[in-house]
Amino acid sequence: MEPLLSPDSKRIYVVDALRGFAVMAIMLLHFLEHFIYNSYPVASSPVMEAANQQFKDAFFFLFAGKSYTIFALLFGFTFAIQYRNQARKGRDFAGRFVWRMCLLAVFACMNAVFFPGGDVLLTFAIAGLLLVPCRRLKTSTLVVLSLFFLAQPLEWAYAAAQWVSPAWAPPSLAVAESYAALKTAVDTGNFWLMAWENLTVGQWASLAWGIEAGRLMQAPGLFLLGFVLGRQDFFLQNDRNAMFWTRGMLLSLAGAVAFYVVMSLPDLPAPVHTVFTMWHNVCFTGVWVAGFVLLYRLEYFRKVTVPLLTYGRMSLTNYVSQSLIGSLIFFPYALGLAPYCGYLASFTIGCAAMAGQIWFCRWWLERHRYGVLEGLWHRATWLGAGKAAKPEAR
């Protein structure tokens, strides 16, 4: 195996590994929070309680809101590559991409059955449609649009409204009430009731929380930024890109520190706090991505991260299956271990589940060209297309 590109140069290994890293972090975060099922044991001692809480706080600081943004960034990158590959053949990928987003919404519902609080894939499927009208825009225009969304204009509008009228409050989307109803459904131990509530109340709760937390604005900004990175080939390993990622890491680190200081200020209006939290997460993500890409130039780092390659190639399969695994372990309809697993125990279980997924990915990809759900997604995307129109694996 070549260290940077596959033998046929159809895949960029650093992107596969980075995607695998993001999905692993997302999975472990979900295991720590019991897949948004708020049920934990009473700590056996103050020392154990403190250890659990400190571990959870540290892990969330490092990855919560950052692993998702890596995933979103690479979503835009993938569209750039798919669009360019089809454009070289004289075809417009726009129609197929819209259909592909409809299929992603189906996978989002599949995952939501086992995940109270809905699923971010539905947000991706909706926000991803913005890439279609933007596909032919100049790179400079794409950057401006990306910065517009990342600036969180909705939150600034809320802040302005509160400044004019301090008694005004943003419209309530009943997110807390939705999550409470979802927990009640999970508590019953009735799988079918849980599945229905997850697919209805849960999907709404996910979208509503995305609006309140700033993610519905952040996602298209990240998609467009990833589109630019793909269009400009910034993930290829060369000296020009090494300089780009070095500068990006330094700027991102400075931004992450500065925005963290601001978001920690007392009495900050809620919309402004959301803005600086989102900016901090994006900058922190820049540190992760730039650091990973730069380290991937080192042979030792590439060897250490080999398991991430197959894990990243089957990111959709791993993302959906982790919800199934987690619900079977933690929820009352199955093993119901949530009330007996603190943060440290849940993390350990998540690592074991992840190891099983890594083994399965390697076994599967030795026998198949695509992952389980990736193969279904690929075949359904190109349903009715001639053989020549279908792209190579990526």
From TrEMBL:
Q: What region holds the DUF418 domain?
A: 229-383
Query: What transmembrane ranges does the database entry give?
Result: 12-32, 58-81, 93-114, 120-137, 142-161, 207-230, 242-263, 278-298, 319-338, 344-365
Q: Which domain of life is it from?
A: Bacteria
Q: Does the keyword Nucleotidyltransferase apply?
A: no
In terms of InterPro entries, this protein maps to: Bact_Transport_Assoc (IPR052529), DUF418 (IPR007349), HGSNAT_cat (IPR012429)
Domain Heparan-alpha-glucosaminide N-acetyltransferase catalytic: residue ranges:
11-155
A Pfam family of the record is HGSNAT_cat
UniProtKB keywords? Membrane, Transmembrane, Transmembrane helix
Query: Membrane as a keyword?
Result: yes
Under PANTHER family, the record lists: INNER MEMBRANE PROTEIN
Name of protein = DUF418 domain-containing protein
